[in-house]
Design a protein that fits this description.
36% of the residues lie in helices and 23% in strands. The chain has 489 residues and is of the alpha/beta class. The structure holds flavin-adenine dinucleotide.
């Protein structure tokens, strides 16, 4: 039986492993961390569960083609409840609130009442969201294996969005929001994603949520990863954790062996790299990097990435009104020299197992740019200062939450702080990036070939191969790697 070595046990690696076993390959996953799941993870701290990933997962609607992939890998399907919230987020300013409702008619009605001065643009925005709720991620086979009829079927599905995509791909979000006079409506469109994204990205995201295809699998991030791990093991796969692949040997354009930092040798017929793409090329050698990645790493202005600074707080009572993300303006505070005046907060009250009875765990997420990652990495050289800074920022955030929600005064405690550097330290993630390259107004949605140039038995998958990444792109990229191996046999 031919054997596939998978490097990296995130969602892409687990998916590759599962499809490898389903297609009759022997398969071993090598993962550098102590557990699999990669960025899709959670852990327990002081009696609370820290869910550090999924806010929404594309593919929860059985009507969309990606659902079948999630079902194949055991993340969704029989026995897995999906939580569909009635709103995605709330903008809360000066005692007024507006919401991104799942029901687009409700969103439109609320916005029209709230900002009649923007009625023309609001109607147009909601019309576009209705169209984008038809959007699909092509998830059945890789692009190069799609024939004429596959392409036609896909184009037919996304036909309603094509005119808008053509027009708004090249419009920066920051430009688009200027069409609205009301600043809270601007914030509703601008606040969730980093401002470098293009307008289509927010239309796609809210449209997906509104279609019922972007919800929350029960058990959160660790639930998704654990079910996939179990599926892989039940199919007879092998997982090696605490194993960092650092180098390979190659003969005649083929990998012959891969080596772990502790000397263990991983040997197979095919090698699928699902670890971070930059880490992949440091393992196989930069001479194997193709134009897709060379141009992206060389030009971070055109191809930026982003990360986040996350604070987790325990709360001595339940706060159900924060079960969906709430964004509020606050007195400015400082994160390594950059001023922040908005806090995005949510509680995990919808998952009873995440906090002891009658208590809550709150997440505060502040988006970070590549330059912030560099500062965190530098600061980490002095661990004491790094830890003090994290605590100081967390305290500043708590103070602002007390101002916004006086009833919480004295009830909050810091349980965990995650910086952009944490992702690099634990998972080897390039610039601590949360997802992959941002789809800006200057970039097209290009996909990677999934091959590593100059190495005929090496494949690459993971969020970096299908920007802008995220869980759906990770899972399908893992499947695509195995389909490519089968096709090229
Ligand atoms: C805070 C946060 C919130 C997010 N929210 C969402 C969300 O709501 N919805 C959504 O769709 N996505 C979300 N994402 C993004 C999503 O988690 C990722 O896109 C996805 O999990 C990436 O999966 P992956 O397998 O491609 O990569 P990774 O998760 O990075 O997995 C790569 C794996 O390779 C391992 N590895 C690295 N180097 C080596 C090596 N040398 N040897 C062996 N193993 C190695 C790593 O340890 C890791 O386990 C979020 C991410 C973060 C951080």
């Amino acid at each position: 039986m031919e054997k596939i070595i998978v490097i990296g046990g995130g969602i892409a690696g687990l998916a590759a492993g599962i499809y490898a076993r389903k297609n009759g390959f022997e398969c071993e996953i090598y993962e550098r961390h102590t557990i699999v799941g990669g960025q899709c993870t959670g852990w327990n701290r002081n009696g609370f569960h820290i869910d550090n990933c999924v806010h929404w997962m594309t593919g929860t609607s059985p009507e969309k083609e990606i659902y079948k992939t999630w079902e194949d890998v055991g993340a969704l399907g029989e026995g897995v409840d999906v939580l569909q919230h009635d709103k995605f987020l709330t903008i809360d300013q000066n005692g007024k609130q507006i919401h991104v409702w799942k029901d687009v008619n409700r969103l439109e009605k609320e916005l029209l009442e709230f900002a009649p001065e923007d009625s023309k643009e609001i109607k147009h925005f909601c019309k576009m969201l209705r169209a984008f709720s038809h959007m699909e991620v092509p998830a059945i086979k890789p692009k190069e294996q799609m024939g004429f009829w596959d392409n036609m079927r896909y184009v037919k599905k996304i036909l309603p969005v094509l005119p808008y995509a053509a027009k708004y791909n090249s419009v920066p979000l920051t430009e688009y929001v200027k069409r609205f006079k009301n600043t809270m409506v601007q914030d509703l469109i601008l606040s969730y994603l980093p401002s470098a994204f293009n307008t289509v990205s927010i239309l796609y995201m809210y449209g997906t949520f509104m279609s019922g295809n972007g919800a929350l699998p029960k058990g959160g991030s660790i639930g998704i990863a654990t079910r996939m791990r179990k599926k892989f093991l039940s199919l007879g796969g092998t997982i090696h954790t605490n194993k960092t692949i650092t180098s390979i040997s190659e003969t005649n354009g083929k990998i012959t062996e891969a080596y772990c930092s502790d000397g263990q040798i991983a040997s197979g017929d095919y090698y699928v790299f699902t670890c971070d793409a930059d880490a992949t090329y440091s393992i196989v050698g930069r001479q194997h990097m193709d134009e897709f990645f060379t141009k992206r790493y060389a030009d971070p202005e055109t191809y930026p990435t982003f990360s986040s600074f996350n604070v987790y707080l325990s709360c001595e009572k339940k706060i159900e009104e924060l079960s969906d993300m709430v964004l509020f303006k606050c007195k400015p505070f400082d994160i390594l020299g950059s001023k922040q005046n908005t806090i995005a907060i949510k509680s995990f009250d919808y998952e009873p197992s995440f906090a002891p009875e009658g208590k809550s765990v709150l997440q505060i997420m502040i988006l970070q740019e590549e330059k912030d990652y560099d500062l965190w990495a530098k600061l980490h050289e002095n661990k004491e200062q790094y830890n003090e800074t994290k605590q100081q920022i967390a305290n500043d955030i708590i103070e602002r939450i007390y101002t916004q929600y006086p009833s919480l005064q004295g009830l909050l405690q810091v349980v965990e702080v995650v910086t952009p550097y944490s992702y690099n330290k634990l998972l080897g993630t390039y610039k601590g990036a949360y997802m992959s390259f941002i789809t800006t107004h200057k970039t097209k949605r290009e996909v990677h070939s999934g091959r590593i140039q100059g190495l005929s038995n090496a494949y690459i998958a993971g969020q970096w191969t299908l920007p802008p990444g995220g869980l759906p792109n990770a899972v399908i990229s893992g499947k695509f790697a195995i389909q490519r191996i089968i096709k090229n046999k």
